[in-house]
Amino acid sequence: MIFPVAVDRILADRPHAETGRSVLTVPAPTGTPVVIGGHDPTDTEDGYPIGVYAAPVRGAEAIDPTDDGRALRWLRTSWPLQAAAFHPTLPLLVLGTGSYDGGYFFEGELFLLDLASGERRNLFADDCRREVRSLEWTDAHTLRLLLAPSDDWQDRAARSEGHQVDLARPDWRAVPARSLGHEDLRGPRVPAPRPEPVAASAPEGPRPGQIRSLTVLPDGDVLLTADHALLERWSPGGERRWSTPADPDLGGGRLAVVVADGSCAWVEALGPWGGPGRAFLRIALTDGAELERHTTPGSAALVATPEGPLLVPMPAGYGERARSLFRHGPHAVFRYLPRPACACDCPADDDEDCACGCDCPECNFVDEEEWLTVVDADADADRTTDPAHLVEPDTERLRRLVPWSWEPGESHFGGPGVWTGETDLVMATVRYDGRVNAPKQGFVTRRPIGEDSSGTPRWVFRVDHTATALDIDPSTDTVFVALRGGELIALDAATGALRARGHVHVRGVPVIPTALTVTGPGRLLLGTGDARVLACHLTSS
Protein backbone atom coordinates (compact mmCIF):
# COMPACT_ATOMS: atom_id res chain seq x y z
CA MET A 1 0.00 0.00 0.00
CA ILE A 2 1.30 3.46 -0.93
CA PHE A 3 0.94 6.33 1.52
CA PRO A 4 -1.06 9.26 0.05
CA VAL A 5 1.88 11.63 -0.41
CA ALA A 6 3.65 13.10 -3.44
CA VAL A 7 7.39 13.79 -3.50
CA ASP A 8 8.07 17.33 -4.73
CA ARG A 9 11.87 17.27 -4.65
CA ILE A 10 14.72 15.15 -3.33
CA LEU A 11 17.77 16.46 -1.51
CA ALA A 12 21.02 14.45 -1.66
CA ASP A 13 19.74 12.28 -4.49
CA ARG A 14 22.13 10.04 -6.43
CA PRO A 15 21.97 7.05 -8.78
CA HIS A 16 20.89 3.79 -7.18
CA ALA A 17 20.50 5.51 -3.82
CA GLU A 18 17.90 2.99 -2.66
CA THR A 19 20.48 0.17 -2.68
CA GLY A 20 23.07 2.07 -0.67
CA ARG A 21 26.50 0.54 -1.21
CA SER A 22 26.61 -1.47 -4.44
CA VAL A 23 28.37 -4.78 -3.93
CA LEU A 24 28.08 -6.53 -7.31
CA THR A 25 28.23 -5.60 -10.98
CA VAL A 26 27.43 -8.39 -13.46
CA PRO A 27 26.82 -8.38 -17.23
CA ALA A 28 23.46 -9.31 -18.67
CA PRO A 29 23.37 -11.70 -21.65
CA THR A 30 23.08 -8.73 -23.99
CA GLY A 31 26.34 -7.34 -22.66
CA THR A 32 24.64 -4.36 -21.08
CA PRO A 33 26.10 -3.73 -17.58
CA VAL A 34 23.60 -4.44 -14.86
CA VAL A 35 24.21 -3.24 -11.33
CA ILE A 36 22.83 -5.42 -8.57
CA GLY A 37 23.12 -3.51 -5.33
CA GLY A 38 22.93 -4.86 -1.85
CA HIS A 39 24.15 -3.55 1.49
CA ASP A 40 23.67 -4.06 5.19
CA PRO A 41 20.25 -2.80 6.24
CA THR A 42 20.33 0.68 7.70
CA ASP A 43 18.95 -0.20 11.08
CA THR A 44 15.80 -1.53 9.48
CA GLU A 45 13.75 -4.63 10.14
CA ASP A 46 12.85 -5.43 6.54
CA GLY A 47 16.10 -6.97 5.33
CA TYR A 48 18.70 -6.25 2.67
CA PRO A 49 17.74 -4.26 -0.46
CA ILE A 50 18.63 -5.52 -3.92
CA GLY A 51 17.94 -3.57 -7.10
CA VAL A 52 18.47 -4.57 -10.74
CA TYR A 53 19.24 -1.75 -13.17
CA ALA A 54 19.58 -2.28 -16.92
CA ALA A 55 18.21 -1.87 -20.42
CA PRO A 56 15.69 -4.61 -21.27
CA VAL A 57 17.25 -8.07 -21.29
CA ARG A 58 16.37 -10.79 -23.76
CA GLY A 59 12.78 -11.91 -23.40
CA ALA A 60 11.84 -9.19 -20.91
CA GLU A 61 9.77 -6.99 -23.18
CA ALA A 62 7.26 -6.49 -20.37
CA ILE A 63 9.75 -4.21 -18.62
CA ASP A 64 9.37 -0.55 -19.54
CA PRO A 65 12.52 1.13 -18.21
CA THR A 66 12.70 4.88 -18.00
CA ASP A 67 15.69 7.15 -18.14
CA ASP A 68 15.34 8.35 -14.53
CA GLY A 69 17.48 5.56 -13.09
CA ARG A 70 14.67 3.57 -11.52
CA ALA A 71 15.20 -0.07 -10.62
CA LEU A 72 13.79 -2.54 -13.12
CA ARG A 73 13.21 -5.05 -10.35
CA TRP A 74 13.50 -4.71 -6.60
CA LEU A 75 13.35 -7.01 -3.60
CA ARG A 76 14.60 -7.42 -0.05
CA THR A 77 16.28 -10.48 1.34
CA SER A 78 16.90 -11.76 4.85
CA TRP A 79 20.67 -12.05 4.32
CA PRO A 80 23.17 -9.92 2.34
CA LEU A 81 23.76 -10.58 -1.35
CA GLN A 82 26.77 -12.78 -2.11
CA ALA A 83 26.36 -13.93 -5.74
CA ALA A 84 24.21 -13.45 -8.84
CA ALA A 85 23.97 -14.99 -12.32
CA PHE A 86 21.76 -14.31 -15.34
CA HIS A 87 20.30 -17.30 -17.18
CA PRO A 88 21.97 -17.66 -20.59
CA THR A 89 18.72 -17.73 -22.59
CA LEU A 90 15.74 -16.95 -20.33
CA PRO A 91 14.85 -13.69 -18.54
CA LEU A 92 15.79 -15.23 -15.20
CA LEU A 93 18.23 -14.12 -12.53
CA VAL A 94 19.39 -16.19 -9.56
CA LEU A 95 20.50 -14.41 -6.41
CA GLY A 96 22.46 -16.07 -3.61
CA THR A 97 22.57 -14.56 -0.15
CA GLY A 98 24.05 -15.50 3.17
CA SER A 99 26.19 -14.72 6.18
CA TYR A 100 27.62 -16.24 9.33
CA ASP A 101 25.47 -15.75 12.42
CA GLY A 102 28.51 -15.02 14.56
CA GLY A 103 28.36 -18.15 16.62
CA TYR A 104 27.52 -21.31 14.70
CA PHE A 105 25.50 -21.30 11.43
CA PHE A 106 26.13 -20.17 7.86
CA GLU A 107 22.66 -19.29 6.55
CA GLY A 108 21.22 -17.82 3.36
CA GLU A 109 18.72 -17.98 0.51
CA LEU A 110 18.56 -18.78 -3.20
CA PHE A 111 16.13 -16.52 -5.04
CA LEU A 112 14.92 -17.06 -8.59
CA LEU A 113 13.78 -13.74 -10.07
CA ASP A 114 11.72 -13.60 -13.29
CA LEU A 115 12.81 -10.33 -14.92
CA ALA A 116 9.77 -10.27 -17.20
CA SER A 117 7.02 -10.71 -14.62
CA GLY A 118 8.78 -9.66 -11.44
CA GLU A 119 7.89 -12.93 -9.70
CA ARG A 120 10.48 -14.09 -7.19
CA ARG A 121 10.78 -17.41 -5.37
CA ASN A 122 13.05 -18.58 -2.58
CA LEU A 123 14.05 -22.08 -3.70
CA PHE A 124 15.55 -23.31 -0.42
CA ALA A 125 13.33 -25.30 1.92
CA ASP A 126 12.64 -23.69 5.28
CA ASP A 127 14.91 -26.17 7.09
CA CYS A 128 17.73 -25.81 4.53
CA ARG A 129 18.83 -22.19 4.57
CA ARG A 130 22.40 -22.40 3.23
CA GLU A 131 24.82 -19.54 2.60
CA VAL A 132 25.50 -19.22 -1.15
CA ARG A 133 29.07 -18.23 -2.01
CA SER A 134 29.00 -18.35 -5.82
CA LEU A 135 26.62 -19.08 -8.71
CA GLU A 136 27.24 -20.11 -12.32
CA TRP A 137 25.06 -21.37 -15.16
CA THR A 138 27.08 -24.16 -16.85
CA ASP A 139 24.36 -24.50 -19.52
CA ALA A 140 20.69 -23.58 -19.95
CA HIS A 141 19.57 -26.38 -17.62
CA THR A 142 22.30 -26.59 -14.97
CA LEU A 143 23.03 -24.19 -12.15
CA ARG A 144 26.29 -24.65 -10.22
CA LEU A 145 26.32 -23.48 -6.61
CA LEU A 146 29.10 -23.18 -4.09
CA LEU A 147 27.53 -23.47 -0.65
CA ALA A 148 29.06 -22.87 2.74
CA PRO A 149 28.92 -25.72 5.23
CA SER A 150 25.84 -25.60 7.40
CA ASP A 151 27.91 -24.66 10.44
CA ASP A 152 31.48 -24.44 11.71
CA TRP A 153 31.15 -26.93 14.54
CA GLN A 154 34.55 -28.69 14.72
CA ASP A 155 35.20 -27.50 11.16
CA ARG A 156 38.15 -25.12 10.99
CA ALA A 157 37.97 -24.93 7.19
CA ALA A 158 34.32 -23.85 7.08
CA ARG A 159 35.25 -20.31 6.05
CA SER A 160 37.44 -21.40 3.15
CA GLU A 161 35.77 -24.58 1.92
CA GLY A 162 32.27 -25.58 0.94
CA HIS A 163 30.19 -27.84 -1.23
CA GLN A 164 29.82 -27.72 -5.01
CA VAL A 165 26.35 -28.62 -6.21
CA ASP A 166 25.17 -28.96 -9.83
CA LEU A 167 21.39 -28.58 -10.02
CA ALA A 168 19.82 -29.71 -13.30
CA ARG A 169 16.20 -28.81 -14.13
CA PRO A 170 14.45 -29.12 -17.51
CA ASP A 171 12.65 -25.79 -17.11
CA TRP A 172 13.86 -23.37 -14.44
CA ARG A 173 10.77 -21.24 -14.80
CA ALA A 174 8.74 -24.12 -13.32
CA VAL A 175 10.90 -24.82 -10.25
CA PRO A 176 8.62 -24.47 -7.19
CA ALA A 177 9.42 -22.29 -4.22
CA ARG A 178 11.06 -24.00 -1.22
CA SER A 179 11.62 -27.20 -3.23
CA LEU A 180 15.38 -27.64 -2.64
CA GLY A 181 16.15 -29.70 0.45
CA HIS A 182 19.22 -31.26 2.00
CA GLU A 183 19.34 -34.16 -0.48
CA ASP A 184 19.31 -31.76 -3.42
CA LEU A 185 22.18 -29.75 -1.99
CA ARG A 186 24.69 -32.52 -1.35
CA GLY A 187 27.99 -32.18 -3.18
CA PRO A 188 31.73 -32.70 -2.95
CA ARG A 189 33.87 -30.58 -0.64
CA VAL A 190 35.87 -28.00 -2.60
CA PRO A 191 37.67 -24.69 -1.95
CA ALA A 192 34.97 -22.06 -1.45
CA PRO A 193 36.32 -18.92 0.23
CA ARG A 194 33.83 -16.29 1.28
CA PRO A 195 33.42 -13.83 -1.64
CA GLU A 196 34.94 -10.39 -1.66
CA PRO A 197 32.35 -7.78 -2.78
CA VAL A 198 32.93 -6.32 -6.25
CA ALA A 199 31.70 -2.77 -5.82
CA ALA A 200 30.13 -0.70 -8.55
CA SER A 201 31.68 2.69 -9.20
CA ALA A 202 30.78 5.20 -6.50
CA PRO A 203 31.83 8.73 -5.59
CA GLU A 204 34.69 9.09 -3.17
CA GLY A 205 34.06 10.02 0.44
CA PRO A 206 32.20 8.40 3.33
CA ARG A 207 29.34 6.11 2.38
CA PRO A 208 26.06 7.93 3.07
CA GLY A 209 24.10 6.51 5.98
CA GLN A 210 20.67 7.03 7.42
CA ILE A 211 19.32 10.48 8.21
CA ARG A 212 18.90 10.89 11.98
CA SER A 213 17.17 14.27 12.36
CA LEU A 214 15.85 17.18 10.28
CA THR A 215 15.49 20.85 11.22
CA VAL A 216 14.05 23.58 8.99
CA LEU A 217 15.60 27.03 9.51
CA PRO A 218 13.62 30.28 9.19
CA ASP A 219 15.08 30.92 5.72
CA GLY A 220 13.91 27.50 4.50
CA ASP A 221 17.32 25.83 4.64
CA VAL A 222 17.44 22.31 6.04
CA LEU A 223 19.83 21.03 8.70
CA LEU A 224 20.34 17.30 8.89
CA THR A 225 22.29 14.93 11.08
CA ALA A 226 23.23 11.53 9.69
CA ASP A 227 25.52 8.54 10.08
CA HIS A 228 27.97 10.07 7.60
CA ALA A 229 27.83 13.68 8.84
CA LEU A 230 27.69 15.44 12.17
CA LEU A 231 25.73 18.24 10.48
CA GLU A 232 24.90 19.36 6.95
CA ARG A 233 23.08 22.41 5.62
CA TRP A 234 21.05 22.26 2.41
CA SER A 235 19.21 24.92 0.46
CA PRO A 236 15.49 24.43 -0.27
CA GLY A 237 16.42 23.82 -3.92
CA GLY A 238 18.73 20.92 -3.10
CA GLU A 239 22.19 22.53 -2.97
CA ARG A 240 24.45 21.38 -0.18
CA ARG A 241 25.91 24.53 1.36
CA TRP A 242 28.39 22.74 3.63
CA SER A 243 28.98 19.50 5.48
CA THR A 244 30.71 18.68 8.75
CA PRO A 245 31.71 15.05 8.16
CA ALA A 246 31.48 12.28 10.71
CA ASP A 247 34.28 12.22 13.25
CA PRO A 248 36.49 9.08 13.24
CA ASP A 249 36.00 8.66 16.99
CA LEU A 250 32.51 10.08 17.43
CA GLY A 251 30.73 9.05 14.24
CA GLY A 252 27.97 11.16 12.77
CA GLY A 253 25.26 13.24 14.39
CA ARG A 254 22.16 12.03 16.19
CA LEU A 255 20.32 15.30 16.90
CA ALA A 256 20.85 19.03 16.36
CA VAL A 257 19.43 21.88 18.43
CA VAL A 258 19.72 25.40 17.04
CA VAL A 259 20.46 28.10 19.62
CA ALA A 260 18.11 31.05 20.04
CA ASP A 261 20.08 33.57 17.97
CA GLY A 262 20.45 31.17 15.03
CA SER A 263 24.22 31.48 14.89
CA CYS A 264 25.09 27.88 15.68
CA ALA A 265 23.69 24.50 16.70
CA TRP A 266 24.62 21.94 19.29
CA VAL A 267 24.94 18.43 17.86
CA GLU A 268 24.76 15.20 19.82
CA ALA A 269 27.26 12.74 18.32
CA LEU A 270 26.47 9.05 17.85
CA GLY A 271 29.71 8.10 19.63
CA PRO A 272 32.13 7.81 21.26
CA TRP A 273 32.23 4.09 20.53
CA GLY A 274 32.85 1.75 23.42
CA GLY A 275 32.72 4.40 26.14
CA PRO A 276 30.07 5.34 28.69
CA GLY A 277 30.14 9.09 28.04
CA ARG A 278 28.60 11.26 25.36
CA ALA A 279 29.99 14.01 23.14
CA PHE A 280 28.30 17.23 22.05
CA LEU A 281 29.68 19.68 19.49
CA ARG A 282 28.75 23.31 18.79
CA ILE A 283 28.86 23.98 15.05
CA ALA A 284 28.62 27.33 13.25
CA LEU A 285 25.68 27.54 10.84
CA THR A 286 27.56 29.84 8.45
CA ASP A 287 30.23 27.37 7.39
CA GLY A 288 29.94 24.19 9.50
CA ALA A 289 33.06 24.89 11.56
CA GLU A 290 33.35 23.25 14.96
CA LEU A 291 33.32 25.92 17.68
CA GLU A 292 33.26 23.93 20.89
CA ARG A 293 33.21 20.36 22.19
CA HIS A 294 31.60 19.16 25.42
CA THR A 295 31.73 15.66 26.88
CA THR A 296 29.87 14.03 29.75
CA PRO A 297 31.16 11.11 31.85
CA GLY A 298 27.81 9.32 31.83
CA SER A 299 24.89 8.84 29.45
CA ALA A 300 23.16 12.08 28.47
CA ALA A 301 20.97 13.43 25.69
CA LEU A 302 20.42 16.78 24.03
CA VAL A 303 16.97 18.34 24.45
CA ALA A 304 15.52 21.35 22.63
CA THR A 305 13.55 23.80 24.77
CA PRO A 306 12.09 27.22 23.98
CA GLU A 307 14.91 28.75 26.02
CA GLY A 308 17.73 26.81 24.36
CA PRO A 309 19.58 23.47 24.50
CA LEU A 310 19.64 21.36 27.65
CA LEU A 311 21.51 18.18 28.57
CA VAL A 312 19.48 15.62 30.47
CA PRO A 313 20.61 12.29 32.00
CA MET A 314 19.66 9.02 30.31
CA PRO A 315 19.50 5.46 31.68
CA ALA A 316 22.86 3.80 31.07
CA GLY A 317 23.35 0.54 29.22
CA TYR A 318 20.35 0.75 26.89
CA GLY A 319 21.76 2.81 24.02
CA GLU A 320 19.18 4.11 21.55
CA ARG A 321 16.39 2.23 23.34
CA ALA A 322 16.72 4.54 26.35
CA ARG A 323 15.93 7.65 24.37
CA SER A 324 12.52 9.24 24.51
CA LEU A 325 12.63 12.96 23.81
CA PHE A 326 9.66 15.17 23.00
CA ARG A 327 9.42 18.08 20.58
CA HIS A 328 7.33 21.26 20.46
CA GLY A 329 6.70 21.51 24.18
CA PRO A 330 6.91 24.18 26.88
CA HIS A 331 9.28 22.02 28.99
CA ALA A 332 11.95 19.39 28.55
CA VAL A 333 10.39 15.99 29.23
CA PHE A 334 12.26 12.72 28.96
CA ARG A 335 12.46 9.12 30.17
CA TYR A 336 14.51 8.78 33.33
CA LEU A 337 15.58 5.98 35.65
CA PRO A 338 16.46 7.62 38.99
CA ARG A 339 19.51 6.22 40.72
CA PRO A 340 20.34 7.80 44.09
CA ALA A 341 23.89 8.82 44.89
CA CYS A 342 25.94 6.56 47.15
CA ALA A 343 25.41 7.34 50.82
CA CYS A 344 29.00 6.63 51.84
CA ASP A 345 30.91 8.61 49.20
CA CYS A 346 32.16 5.51 47.37
CA PRO A 347 33.46 5.97 43.79
CA ALA A 348 30.36 4.57 42.11
CA ASP A 349 29.03 6.53 39.16
CA ASP A 350 25.40 7.68 39.31
CA ASP A 351 24.69 5.49 36.26
CA GLU A 352 26.16 2.33 37.81
CA ASP A 353 25.52 0.11 40.81
CA CYS A 354 27.32 1.08 43.99
CA ALA A 355 30.97 0.01 43.92
CA CYS A 356 31.78 0.26 47.63
CA GLY A 357 30.74 -3.30 48.46
CA CYS A 358 28.98 -2.33 51.68
CA ASP A 359 25.66 -3.74 52.83
CA CYS A 360 23.90 -0.51 53.76
CA PRO A 361 20.47 -0.24 52.08
CA GLU A 362 21.12 3.37 51.07
CA CYS A 363 24.09 2.32 48.92
CA ASN A 364 22.52 -0.76 47.35
CA PHE A 365 19.02 0.53 46.71
CA VAL A 366 18.13 1.09 43.06
CA ASP A 367 14.76 2.49 42.01
CA GLU A 368 13.94 0.23 39.05
CA GLU A 369 10.81 2.13 37.99
CA GLU A 370 11.27 4.53 35.12
CA TRP A 371 9.44 7.84 35.02
CA LEU A 372 8.44 10.55 32.64
CA THR A 373 10.45 13.39 34.08
CA VAL A 374 10.33 17.15 33.55
CA VAL A 375 13.03 19.77 33.97
CA ASP A 376 11.45 22.54 36.02
CA ALA A 377 11.40 25.87 34.25
CA ASP A 378 13.61 27.54 36.83
CA ALA A 379 16.44 25.25 35.71
CA ASP A 380 17.10 27.97 33.18
CA ALA A 381 18.49 30.08 36.01
CA ASP A 382 21.72 28.19 35.26
CA ARG A 383 21.88 29.70 31.78
CA THR A 384 24.34 32.52 31.26
CA THR A 385 23.82 35.53 29.02
CA ASP A 386 25.42 33.53 26.20
CA PRO A 387 22.54 32.01 24.17
CA ALA A 388 24.85 29.23 23.00
CA HIS A 389 25.59 28.05 26.54
CA LEU A 390 24.80 24.36 27.06
CA VAL A 391 23.05 23.83 30.39
CA GLU A 392 23.19 20.65 32.46
CA PRO A 393 20.39 21.15 35.02
CA ASP A 394 21.01 19.95 38.53
CA THR A 395 19.27 16.66 39.33
CA GLU A 396 17.36 18.43 42.09
CA ARG A 397 15.45 20.27 39.37
CA LEU A 398 14.26 17.01 37.77
CA ARG A 399 10.67 16.32 38.78
CA ARG A 400 8.92 12.99 38.17
CA LEU A 401 5.52 13.25 36.51
CA VAL A 402 4.01 9.80 35.86
CA PRO A 403 5.38 6.25 35.60
CA TRP A 404 6.91 5.56 32.20
CA SER A 405 4.83 2.42 31.65
CA TRP A 406 1.08 2.83 31.93
CA GLU A 407 0.66 -0.93 32.56
CA PRO A 408 2.03 -2.07 35.95
CA GLY A 409 4.79 -4.63 35.57
CA GLU A 410 5.50 -3.91 31.91
CA SER A 411 8.80 -2.57 30.63
CA HIS A 412 8.89 -0.27 27.61
CA PHE A 413 11.81 1.05 25.60
CA GLY A 414 11.80 4.68 24.55
CA GLY A 415 10.91 6.32 21.27
CA PRO A 416 10.08 9.68 19.69
CA GLY A 417 7.27 11.91 20.88
CA VAL A 418 5.64 15.33 20.63
CA TRP A 419 3.65 17.61 22.86
CA THR A 420 0.07 18.33 21.90
CA GLY A 421 -1.39 21.15 23.94
CA GLU A 422 0.05 22.09 27.33
CA THR A 423 -0.42 18.81 29.20
CA ASP A 424 -0.55 15.90 26.70
CA LEU A 425 2.17 13.87 25.01
CA VAL A 426 1.88 11.64 21.95
CA MET A 427 4.66 9.09 22.30
CA ALA A 428 5.96 5.87 20.77
CA THR A 429 7.31 2.94 22.80
CA VAL A 430 8.21 -0.73 22.35
CA ARG A 431 7.30 -3.33 24.96
CA TYR A 432 10.17 -5.50 26.21
CA ASP A 433 9.35 -8.87 27.73
CA GLY A 434 12.83 -10.44 27.90
CA ARG A 435 12.27 -13.15 25.28
CA VAL A 436 14.99 -13.64 22.66
CA ASN A 437 13.81 -12.87 19.10
CA ALA A 438 10.29 -12.20 20.33
CA PRO A 439 8.10 -10.21 17.90
CA LYS A 440 8.20 -6.51 18.67
CA GLN A 441 5.03 -4.96 20.01
CA GLY A 442 5.11 -1.23 19.58
CA PHE A 443 2.65 1.41 20.68
CA VAL A 444 1.75 4.98 19.83
CA THR A 445 -0.21 6.53 22.65
CA ARG A 446 -1.51 9.86 23.92
CA ARG A 447 -1.02 10.44 27.63
CA PRO A 448 -1.94 13.37 29.90
CA ILE A 449 0.89 14.34 32.23
CA GLY A 450 -0.62 17.23 34.19
CA GLU A 451 -0.09 17.72 37.91
CA ASP A 452 -3.13 15.64 38.87
CA SER A 453 -2.85 13.06 36.08
CA SER A 454 -2.14 9.36 36.52
CA GLY A 455 -0.74 9.10 33.00
CA THR A 456 -3.47 6.71 31.88
CA PRO A 457 -3.56 6.87 28.05
CA ARG A 458 -6.40 8.61 26.29
CA TRP A 459 -5.82 6.17 23.43
CA VAL A 460 -3.33 3.47 22.36
CA PHE A 461 -2.55 2.45 18.77
CA ARG A 462 -0.56 -0.78 18.28
CA VAL A 463 2.20 -1.07 15.67
CA ASP A 464 4.38 -4.04 14.71
CA HIS A 465 7.65 -2.13 14.25
CA THR A 466 9.75 0.33 16.20
CA ALA A 467 8.95 3.98 15.50
CA THR A 468 11.88 5.93 14.06
CA ALA A 469 10.28 9.40 13.99
CA LEU A 470 7.07 11.18 14.97
CA ASP A 471 5.63 14.66 14.48
CA ILE A 472 2.27 16.43 14.48
CA ASP A 473 0.51 18.68 11.96
CA PRO A 474 -1.48 21.07 14.17
CA SER A 475 -3.53 22.36 11.21
CA THR A 476 -5.31 19.00 10.93
CA ASP A 477 -4.49 17.53 14.36
CA THR A 478 -2.75 14.63 12.59
CA VAL A 479 0.15 12.66 14.05
CA PHE A 480 2.58 11.17 11.53
CA VAL A 481 4.67 8.17 12.62
CA ALA A 482 7.52 6.58 10.65
CA LEU A 483 8.16 2.91 11.38
CA ARG A 484 11.43 1.04 11.02
CA GLY A 485 9.79 -1.46 8.71
CA GLY A 486 9.27 1.37 6.20
CA GLU A 487 5.62 2.18 6.78
CA LEU A 488 4.29 5.69 7.42
CA ILE A 489 1.04 6.05 9.37
CA ALA A 490 -1.21 9.01 10.10
CA LEU A 491 -3.37 9.10 13.25
CA ASP A 492 -6.05 11.43 14.56
CA ALA A 493 -4.30 13.12 17.50
CA ALA A 494 -7.55 13.43 19.46
CA THR A 495 -8.83 9.86 19.11
CA GLY A 496 -5.95 7.75 17.80
CA ALA A 497 -8.06 6.69 14.81
CA LEU A 498 -6.07 5.62 11.75
CA ARG A 499 -6.29 8.13 8.90
CA ALA A 500 -3.78 6.65 6.46
CA ARG A 501 -0.95 4.15 6.25
CA GLY A 502 1.44 2.85 3.62
CA HIS A 503 4.90 3.16 2.13
CA VAL A 504 6.45 6.16 0.41
CA HIS A 505 7.88 5.32 -3.02
CA VAL A 506 10.66 7.01 -4.97
CA ARG A 507 11.08 5.89 -8.57
CA GLY A 508 8.93 2.87 -7.85
CA VAL A 509 10.90 1.67 -4.80
CA PRO A 510 9.72 1.99 -1.17
CA VAL A 511 12.01 3.98 1.12
CA ILE A 512 12.61 3.62 4.85
CA PRO A 513 11.72 6.88 6.67
CA THR A 514 14.15 7.45 9.55
CA ALA A 515 13.47 11.14 10.28
CA LEU A 516 10.30 13.20 9.92
CA THR A 517 9.40 16.86 10.32
CA VAL A 518 6.13 18.63 9.53
CA THR A 519 7.08 21.81 7.64
CA GLY A 520 3.60 23.27 7.13
CA PRO A 521 -0.05 22.30 6.66
CA GLY A 522 -0.05 19.05 4.73
CA ARG A 523 3.70 19.19 4.08
CA LEU A 524 6.35 16.75 5.32
CA LEU A 525 10.11 16.47 5.20
CA LEU A 526 11.24 12.84 5.34
CA GLY A 527 14.80 11.64 5.93
CA THR A 528 15.49 8.13 4.67
CA GLY A 529 17.68 5.21 5.53
CA ASP A 530 19.55 5.71 2.23
CA ALA A 531 20.61 9.29 3.13
CA ARG A 532 18.08 11.23 1.06
CA VAL A 533 15.64 13.94 2.14
CA LEU A 534 12.17 14.00 0.56
CA ALA A 535 10.08 17.16 0.48
CA CYS A 536 6.49 15.94 0.23
CA HIS A 537 2.89 17.10 0.25
CA LEU A 538 -0.18 15.08 1.16
CA THR A 539 -2.57 14.00 -1.54
CA SER A 540 -6.14 12.78 -1.30
CA SER A 541 -6.22 9.19 -0.13
Task: Describe the overall structure.
The protein is an all-beta fold and 541 residues long. The protein has 1 helix and 43 strands. Mean pLDDT is 83; it is low at 55-67, 200-204, 347-359 and 361-366.
How would you summarize this macromolecular structure in one to three sentences?
The chain has 541 residues and is an all-beta fold.
Count the beta strands: 43
Overall shape: it is elongated
Category by helix and strand content? mainly beta
Level of helix content? under 10%
| Poorly predicted tracts of residues | 55-67, 200-204, 347-359, 361-366
**What is the helix tally?**
1
Strand content: 35-45%
Strand count, sense and barrel status of the largest sheet are: 6 strands, mixed
Instruction: Look at the structure and give the mean pLDDT.
Output: 83
User: Rg, please?
Assistant: 26 Å
Distance between the amino and carboxyl termini: 11 Å
